[in-house]
Amino acid sequence: MNQTYQVRIYVTLRPSVLDPAGTAVQSGLKHMGYDNVEQVRIGKYVEVTLTATNETTAREQIDRMCDQLLANPVIENYRFELTQLQLNPG
Amino acid sequence: MNVGIIVFPGSNCDRDVAMVTRDLLHLPTRMVWHEESDLSELDLVILPGGFSYGDYLRCGAIARFSAAMQAAVQHAERGGLVLGICNGFQVLTEVGLLPGALMRNRDLHFVCDRVPLRVERTDLPYTQQYQHGQVITLPIAHGEGCYYADTQTLAELEANRQVLFRYCTADGQLTAVGNPNGSLSNIAGICNRQGNVLGMMPHPERAADPMLGSTDGVPLFAGIVSAALSAAAHR
């Protein structure tokens, strides 16, 4: 039977890639008085809800989605957390 | 030679390109809707500037999955000419026809300007009507034009002479001052290893009609035409 999963995907810039937007936000924080901020890196957060026969299949699918579209492997890394949604008893 | 211009939802330089190929150069030119998949009669496929599919997620990320782009990849693999301008360059990197990626400009601003470029290689159809090292001026208009590639890819680009245009100062110096967006190695335009696919952030089509004040983009299109004519003569 198909299970429903909620997936929280975090796409982040590779460490070697400069993040000018992150640097700008960091300087904004500094202007607000947060002198202790050492680095800001801005990424993307994507929520996907999908059905799959099991968790392994779901994870494989999400990996492919990330590699092909949700992240650009040239400049970005990704990681995700997956939780199984309980069937609605009603 | 037959020209096709792919029109994605959100493309906005498609008719500017057609103005050059159809009206100035009198080439048979067809607008190709992104859902079309037969490009077999085309010699030159152009991916125009704009904001394909709203540039959602990343610039050019969604356009790569369109039927027309899949056909354009096959066209390129057959050795056909593919020219991506601005958003078209971003699409070419996303689809993997060109290496690297285009990221937010160094200073975070959308840059709309006319900038000097140095022509780095002149033995390809696209650049054969320029002089080696010639400094030309073309318009740019982009927020995500900062070229990035890892060190190894950059080295390969240089070793294979794939960089065709670099941002420079008015006297041709490759300095940070002459670099409007922070592109690595001042890269403004690159080709694939075979030389039939070119992606560039500057807009040659906006510097083609003398009425608009500059014609530095004309040799690029004229070079493609003359290469096609000489290829036809040798067949």
What does this structure look like?
The complex is a heterodimer of chains A (90) and B (235). Chain A is α+β, with helices and mostly antiparallel strands. Chain A has a single domain (3-84), classed as Mth169, Chain: A, CATH 3.30.1280. Chain A has helices spanning 20-31, 55-70, and strands at 3-13, 44-52, 76-84. In chain A, strands 2-1-3 form a 3-stranded antiparallel beta sheet, with helices on one face. The mean pLDDT of chain A is 94. In chain B, strand 1 (3-7), helix 1 (14-24) and strand 2 (29-33) form a beta-alpha-beta unit. Chain B is of the alpha/beta class. Chain B has 5 helices and 11 strands, in the order βαββαβαββββαβββα. Chain B is globular, with a radius of gyration of 16 Å. In chain B, the strands form 2 sheets. Chain B has a 9-stranded mixed beta sheet, with helices on both faces. Chain B has a two-stranded antiparallel sheet with strand order 5-8. Chain B has a single domain (3-233), classed as Class I glutamine amidotransferase (GATase) domain (Rossmann fold, 3-Layer(aba) Sandwich). Chain B is 24% helix and 24% strand. The interface between A and B is medium-sized, with 12 and 20 residues.
